[in-house]
Amino acid sequence: MVEFEEVCARNFGSFKELQFPIKDQGLVLILGKNKNTSGSNGAGKSLLAEVIFFPIFDNLLRGINPPDIVNITTGKDMLVELSLSHEGKTYKVRNGRKFEGKNKIYEIVDTASETLGLPEDWWLTNVNYGKTVFSGLAVVSGSDVHPLVHGTDKNKKDYLTDLFGLHVYDECLDFVKSNLSRFTKRQTELNALIESKQIEKNSDVKKLLPDDQITEMKEQLTISSELFGELQESLSEELTKLGEVKVEKEYNQKQQKLRDRIDELKTDTVELKDILGDRVNKLDIGKKKVEQLSQKVQDLTAEFKLLRNQREKIMELADTCPTCLQPISEEKKRELLEDLKEKQDNCFAEKIEFDKQFAKGKDLISKIEEYISKRERMRDLEVQLSDVAIPENLEDLREHVDELKREIRSVETEISTLKSTIDQHNIVTTRVSETQSQINKWAHELKTINDDILYWTFLSQTFGQYGMKSVKMDSILETLNIHIAEYIDFLTSSQISAMYRPVEKKATDQFELFVIDSTGERPFKAWSNGEKKRVHIAVLLGIWGAAHELCNSPPNFVYLDDCFGDLDEIGRTRVSELLRSITLDGRTVFVSSPVDQTDIRFDQIWYVEKDGDFSTLRR
Predict the structure, then answer these.
(1) Coil, helix or strand for 38?
(2) In whole angstroms, how far apart are CA 539 and each of 473, 527, 533?
């Protein structure tokens, strides 16, 4: 339970400084005196209720804009500090306005831990009702404007909804409706999808061939494939035969090439034979003579080298004979050198001659060998030419090959057609199967959706207009009527009774306060001001009792503005006794009155006096 401890303010309305306790003050009478008008109006009594309301809700009870409550005479900022206690902790709520500006000073301070946070969050978390409910619980003005008494049907329902937390049913209903709408939308989507897929499936089913026809086509495909293999094998054999004997065109080309080459070889051999004459048949003799010439050339080369060495030696030995190594004359030496020179020249000339003969011999042997090789090649070509012959059945073979090719193309076309038809059938079959699988999946989801819709429809009815909220509202009204009846009986000595009940000819969730006396039942608005005042107080206290019993604890104070107006002496006494009984529960009751109530005993009397632009509170 949140308990209001104390409030302090500066520059709030006509108060430069204002401070007063709230908790455990008993029954307090607040009197006002405005020295400017010699009356009580305008003294600032109502500001005592406003200064408690303002820091919590950043608003004022009478609809004044917060910047307008700043005391402009002082030229300073306005600040209100409200002390609260909750679950063993003390809090201070600070709120205010900057002078000549609309900037807020708004914070809540936990005096134990000095942590900061937003007041709205704290208040809604720990108290869970807003400013309309709070003002209805804590303040009753002389204008009798309590929303549960003079409010519209919506005001009454909203007030009780906020006070007793019935908005949770509305939130649940919104949540239920949201889910129901979502599932219904999905249901429509699934039905459309299933219908579309079913049409698609039916269209594909019409394209499917009968099973016996497909079986027959598969058998025919097997037979045709085997026939195709056999025809391919036959064609391969025929083409092999045709390739071995060649074709007429290739034969003619090859034969012509052979003839041309034989003619060339004949010409070459004739020319060579004319050159060689009868030496063609003396190849072996020529080869032996060439070998002899080659040996003679080698011998002469060796002799030439020996003579050259002897001559060089004579020249080295000077006056000595190269054979006996005896001294010889110069003439003898010259004779020896000339003799050696002559032998050397003769040997060299003979070597040159034999070299020429050897070269001619080698050239002749090469030509003879060329002649023999060309003659043998010509014979080979003549043999090949005689072997190339055109087969007699070449045309028949060609016609057979062409016929096989035509038959193969025909079978291949038939196989392609069968395969295409079977493949298309398989594709459609697979698509039908996939479509049916998707339909089954959606149908399963649709079944689940339908079950969910039934569930959420049930919840919609449960939380709907005549559901749990309506039942809870009836229970609240019943509890409220019990508490109102208790207080109205005390205030009127059981002469009248009051209760909330549905209005005839209207929806059952609309209710009105009816008051009954000995003359019968009448709506609240048909009663006198004094009777209304007592009923109004009974309703406020009834709400207190119902709130305490059902859920939220009401504030530990109440501010009654001119609650004794329009009441006779007995009525004032009854009201004061009832208010005093409330203070026994630890609540503070502030009673604002324009005149002193001398016939009523109060625990405290506070005076609000206004002189000039400023008001002061004296206790």
Answers:
(1) coil
(2) 16, 15, 10
Q: How far apart are CA 327 and CA 331, in angstroms?
A: 12
pLDDT at position 206 over 80: yes
pLDDT band for position 88 (50/70/90)? confident
Strands 557-561 and 588-593: parallel
CA distance 515 to 539: 12
* Of residues 165, 71, 77, 82, the one with CA closest to residue 125: 165
Selection from 517, 495, 515 nearest residue 570 by Cα:
495
| Share in percent of the chain as helix, strand, coil (round to 5) | 60, 15, 20
β-pair partners for 364: none
In contact, 166 and 472? CB cutoff 8 Å: yes
CB 502 within 8 A of CB 492: no
Alpha carbon 559 to chain centroid, angstroms: 57
Q: 3-state class of 499 per DSSP?
A: strand
According to DSSP, residue 209 is labeled: P
The candidate with the shortest Cα–Cα distance to 539, out of 473, 485, 475, is 485
More confident residue, 229 or 335: 229
Let me know if 281 is exposed, middle or buried by CB neighbors in 10 A (0-12, 13-18, 19+).
exposed
Q: Which of 578, 551, 228 is nearest to 410 (CA)?
A: 228
Distance CA 555, CA 553 (A): 7
**Residue 181: alpha-carbon gap to chain centroid:** 24
Question: Residue 346 CA to chain centroid, in angstroms?
Answer: 114
Length of the chain in terms of residues written: 619
Containing 18, the helix (H) or strand (E) segment is: strand 15-21
- 3-state class of 22 per DSSP? coil
Residue 480 backbone zone (phi > 0: left; psi -120 to 50: alpha; other: beta): alpha
For the entire predicted model, the pTM comes to 0.56
Is 70 exceeded by the pLDDT of residue 99? Answer: yes
User: How far apart are alpha carbons 88 and 86 in whole angstroms?
Assistant: 6
CATH architecture group of domain 133-165+466-551: 3-Layer(aba) Sandwich (3.40)
Please give the average per-residue pLDDT across 147-157, as a whole number.
76
- Indicate the range of 158-172, 227-241, 383-397, 424-438 predicted with least confidence: 383-397
Q: Please give the structure tokens belonging to residue 276.
A: 């060689």
Beta pairing partners, 34: 39, 610
pLDDT reading at 181 higher than 80: yes
Cβ 150 vs Cβ 144: under 8 Å:
yes
Average pLDDT over the chain, rounded to an integer: 77
Fold of 1-128+556-619: Rossmann fold (3.40.50)
- Residue type at 163? L
- pLDDT, tens digit, 9 for 90 and up, residues 5-26: 999 999 998 999 999 999 999 9
By the 8 A CB rule, do 332 and 318 touch? Answer: no
Cβ density class 197-218: b for 16+ within 10 Å, e for less: beeebeebeeeebeeeebeebe
Q: Amino acid letter at 519? A: T
pLDDT tens digit sequence for 473-530: 888 888 888 888 888 888 887 777 888 877 664 555 567 777 787 777 777 677 777 7
pLDDT digits (tens, 9 = 90+) for 369-388: 676 776 777 777 666 666 65
Kind plus residue range of the DSSP H or E element containing 556 = none
